[in-house]
Amino acid sequence: MAFDLPQAPARANFPGGDAYAAQVLERSRLAAANRGLHYHPDIPYDDATGCCLDLYAPKGGREGLPCLIFVHGGAFSLGCKEWMGFMAPAVTATPALFISISYRLAPGHVYPAAVRDVAAAVDWAWRNVSAYDGDPERLFLGGHSAGGHLASLVALDRRWLDERGLPARVLKGALPISGLYDLDYDGGTAIGAAALAIRRRFIPDDADVPTACPIRHVGPQAPPFYLGAGEHDLGALATEALAMQDLLRQAGVAAAAEVYAGHDHFAASSRCVDDGHPWIARARAFLRSGSPM
Description:
- The protein is an alpha/beta fold.
- It has a single domain (17-289), classed as 3-Layer(aba) Sandwich (Rossmann fold), CATH 3.40.50.
- It has 10 helices and 8 strands.
């Protein structure tokens, strides 16, 4: 199958973002051509919105595979599912299915449109992965940056999956990288002002912010979490990952967080599936066992 990109993808709005996008897209191109994988691009998962997903499966005919659904970043307003395809060869080697999803972007589509899209993708996976040798009882959800926020919110706030009529424990784990967990920003600093501008493109009504913060929904209902972040990540994202780990553990949820030495926001994503990287080692173990520990 051909590896096609959306027309005129938007430019990143952080230093290093354009280089990251170019790098991961080229690696995703190679993943789509990998002869060890079945590549199923542009599968519609919600006819009402036109959102699609790319599914990667290992060749070999094994059944009952776990499935990692992954959500791209891009400050809620740019990016594409093809950004994340580079992860597929390493994840499918688990063995597992890997799904990268599109979702509606701000400011044309504001909160909670993207949240509902992620829940719809989980719904599609639960109903359809068995046709690709996946196990609907072994679904995991992850994402990078804004995608980490969306994945965490859907994993923690049950109303989004309840809207789809999904079982209470449909998600067996969450794997956010450089996720945004607390959206209560101080606009008095440069990084706070930038974060506030991004948030308001996605959530124009400040009254919606509390319910859109994953950190506000931590409780014993949460699935296990493995949280990653870069040592030199944006703002306080590394600190937020550690705080989320602590809150989840206090709620009795199995959780592990890891801060990757020498990684910035983009390296935390682009390097996560490199040979010997701690993220892929722990992610594979998590997908196999259901435990992030």
